[in-house]
Design brief:
209 residues, Glutathione S-transferase Yfyf (Class Pi), Chain A, domain 2, globular, Thioredoxin-like_sf, transferase activity
């Protein structure tokens, strides 16, 4: 059986857990990191020398990097009823574009504000840097709002895909972090759509930003 290693409070672990749920895929979940099993242990470093979660173990295959894990699961275990990545190259590229944007541009925008306002990490205490991060975060969410306004109800159109999983978790974090946000009607509608999905309610909207 597939194993997912990593604490369930991690946004990147939740990507994988939610993907497994959407695929109706049985899995074992082992909590590693921050109060659970140590990421610096030889046992964990043997599967991911970066000492980061999540890690997927599928028989003799070991993967890290959350978006890569989600792509693998969708490609191997998806079917016509649970197709999270389109088989057509152009449609697939659209999904992967938004996944990569989430992992690079969007994540980098929110990191400073999140660490300061939610994690309360004193190393992220520069008020000007916090405000700059908030502004950048809101600007990126405005980009998402514009894309959702072109069609929908999901990021790449009518079908729910992996892009919605990764951006849905980022949207949940945006709503959960205490700062002033602009009104983005298409993002709000998108978020309400996600709140109707059991996988999101179990692994995404679970009280953790």
């Amino acid at each position: 059986m597939i194993k997912v290693l990593g604490r369930a409070s991690s946004i990147n672990v939740r990507k994988v857990l939610w993907t497994c749920h959407e695929l109706d895929l049985p899995f074992e979940h082992e909590a590693w990191g921050q109060g659970a099993l140590s990421l610096s242990s030889p046992e964990f470093l043997a599967v991911n020398p970066n000492a980061m979660v999540p890690v997927l173990v599928d028989e003799d295959l070991v993967l890290w990097e959350s978006n890569t894990i989600c792509r693998y699961l969708a490609s191997v275990y998806g079917d016509a009823g649970r197709e999270l990545v389109p088989p057509q190259p152009r449609a697939r590229a659209q999904v992967e574009k938004w996944m990569d944007w989430q992992a690079t541009e969007l994540n980098n925008a929110w990191r400073y504000a999140f660490m300061a306002l939610v994690r309360k990490n004193p190393a992220w205490g520069d008020g000007q840097a916090v405000e700059a991060s908030i502004q950048n975060w809101n600007r990126h969410m405005t980009i998402l709002d514009a894309a959702l306004g072109q069609g929908g109800p999901f990021v790449c159109g009518a079908a729910f895909t992996l892009a919605d999983i990764v951006l849905g978790l980022s949207t949940h974090r945006w709503y959960s972090t205490p700062f002033t946000r602009p009104e983005l009607p298409h993002v709000a509608r998108f978020y309400q759509q996600l709140c109707q999905r059991p996988g999101f309610l179990k692994y995404g909207n679970n009280g953790e930003p």
